Task: inverse folding
């Protein structure tokens, strides 16, 4: 009895070490059944297949072109994109799509709100917003009040009504930019 409890404790300790150090240690054949049961919980989150399937689903729902057949990947852009805020937000979002319907996903990756948000955050949109708030300040007799009010309204529109979406930005800007035409 004592030796079996010690064996299980030793196995649990080695599994904890493997998890902490992202490393695999050796096991005997007799430990295999117990090991595979324990490792399933550790290995399952590392399986990329479910995430790849969700990504393919999103690409189909978003009606993105099939970039894989039309060009090659720009490795420098890919390495930069991996660390971008948009990519990190997209990967986190992608891992939570299991129970969502296609309609919910379509609304999240499309929709007029995302389109408008993207436009007002573009360089041209920023320039137009700046020009409007500046022009409000130049109106004689009301400019001193109008410009701050225009700035508050602008901030409200940008931050509250049309918040930035890293998911939308990744799908419409970052992802397509990774592929270079042959």
Result:
């Amino acid at each position: 009895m004592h030796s079996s409890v010690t064996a299980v404790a030793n196995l649990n300790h080695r599994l904890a070490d493997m998890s902490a150090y992202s490393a695999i240690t050796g096991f005997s054949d007799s430990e295999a059944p117990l090991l595979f049961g324990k490792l399933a919980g550790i290995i399952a989150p590392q399986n990329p297949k479910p995430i790849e399937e969700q990504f393919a689903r999103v690409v189909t729902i978003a009606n993105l072109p099939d970039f894989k057949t039309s060009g090659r990947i720009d490795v420098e852009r890919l390495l930069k994109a991996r660390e971008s805020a948009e990519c990190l937000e997209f990967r986190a979002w992608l891992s939570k799509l299991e129970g969502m319907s296609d309609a919910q996903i379509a609304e999240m990756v499309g929709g007029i709100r995302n389109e408008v948000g993207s436009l007002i955050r573009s360089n041209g949109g920023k320039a137009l917003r700046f020009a409007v708030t500046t022009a409000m300040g130049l109106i004689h007799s009301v400019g001193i009040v109008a410009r701050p009010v225009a700035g508050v309204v602008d901030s409200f529109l940008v931050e509250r009504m049309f918040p930035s979406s890293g998911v939308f930005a990744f799908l419409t800007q970052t992802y397509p930019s990774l592929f270079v035409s042959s």
Observations:
- Strands lie at 71-73, 179-181.
- The chain has two domains: 1-47, 48-182.
- The CA atoms of residues 2 and 75 lie 55 Å apart.
- The chain has a mean pLDDT of 76.
